[in-house]
Amino acid sequence: MKTTVNLPDELVREAQEIARRERTTLKELVEAGLRTVIRQRTGEPPFTLPDASVDGHGLQPEFRDAHWEQVRDEIYSQPA
């Protein structure tokens, strides 16, 4: 569908620059922007990662400043 929209000159220039930089078209940039706004305003709740933390006091003292490799090696060196 074709439509006409009046936009501030500076906004169009900025959008054109972004489109050039990203090697896309102004049409595609406007379409992506509209889709984003519509998705935000249609009541779809944003994805929220559930809290999977556990109660406790954090890492054991010997691992507080350890690199991941040390933690990993300790995990996998223990008998199952």
Could you characterize the architecture of this molecule?
It comes from Fodinicola feengrottensis. The chain has three helices and no strands. With 80 residues, the chain is an all-alpha fold. The chain has a domain of 33 residues. Helix 1 crosses helix 2. It starts with 8 loop residues before the first helix and ends with a helix. The model has no long low-confidence stretch (mean pLDDT 88).
Write the layout of secondary structure elements.
Elements: H1 9-21, H2 26-41, H3 68-77
Helix pairs in contact: 1-2
Q: What can be said about this structure in brief?
A:
The protein is mostly helical. Helix content is 49%, strand content 0%. It has a domain at 9-41.
Structural key phrases:
single chain, 80 residues, mainly alpha, 49% helix, 0% strand, DUF2191 domain-containing protein, VapB_antitoxin
In DSSP terms (H or I, runs of 4 or more residues), the helix count works out at: 3
**Cα-to-Cα separation, first versus last residue:** 63 Å
What helical percentage do the residues reach?
A: 40-55%
- Succession of helices and strands: HHH
Query: What is the averaged pLDDT score?
Result: 88
Poorly predicted segments? none
> Would you report the number of β strands?
0
- As a percent range, the share of strand residues is under 5%
Question: Structural class of the helices, strands and pairings?
Answer: mainly alpha
Shape: elongated
Q: What is the alpha-carbon Rg in Å?
A: 25 Å
How would a crystallographer describe the biggest sheet?
Answer: none
